[in-house]
Amino acid sequence: TDQGDISNKFIHLTNSSIQKHNVNHVQAQSVKAGGGGGGGSKVSLAYLRKRLAEAQLSWPEMWGRIVQVVLKTLYCVQDVIPSHPNSFELFGFDVLIDADLKPWLIEVNASPSLGRDNDLDYRIKDAMIRDTLRIAVGPAYDRDMLASVFRRKMQEKLKGRWHTDKALPANVFNVLGGKAPREFGVMPSELGDYQRIAPSAAWEEVLKIRNEKKSVHR
């Protein structure tokens, strides 16, 4: 970097929350003109793949390395992340790629911002929200029927007749319209643009490294 640019924070910091205030739009316009998608200093993965292909660099190889970073990070903190099978959380991984295509983890954001500042944000984040809800949200159910079942159960409890309800399975079946919720561990029928990375061959590699280190320490 030229010494004259030392005080220019827009050269050294790539965070979009800073870059969106950059009065110099040369970079953003260049990216947009090249098919970057109108995201300011941000580009889509599709655009990144295109640029790597033009430079004759392997996208699958780089993506595989990023997946390894994500899996190793999650493995390191799995003991402190509560297991809630009936809920989900969205994490945002900030990864820096060096000149050798080696990924470096910068930080992990819990519940990352879904704010949308430009056309690319709307396209990428809206699609991600749709995919997330398709995976996480259970089948539609009859709210009125569910409320009726609750009212009946509460009345029985108030009258001291709280007991095992043999009709409960039939009631649940009717409330869900005959559709069974996806069981824990069962793959969703649609993943959208999500990719399952665990369990997977990549996850087995992480476990293999752990086992090798354990055997060395013994």
For the report, how would you describe the main beta sheet? Answer: 2 strands, antiparallel
Approximate helicity band: 40-55%
Number of strands: 2
Spatial strand sequence of the major β-sheet: 1-2
Helix-strand sequence: HHHHHEEHHHH
Based on secondary structure, the structural category is mainly alpha
**Count of helical segments?**
9
User: How much is the average pLDDT?
Assistant: 82
- CA-based shape: elongated
Quaternary: single chain
The CA-CA distance between the termini, in Å, is 48 Å
Radius of gyration, in angstroms, nearest whole number: 24 Å
Strand content: 5-15%
Low-confidence stretches: none
Tags for this entry?
218 residues; mainly alpha; two-stranded antiparallel sheet; 9 helices; 48% helix; elongated
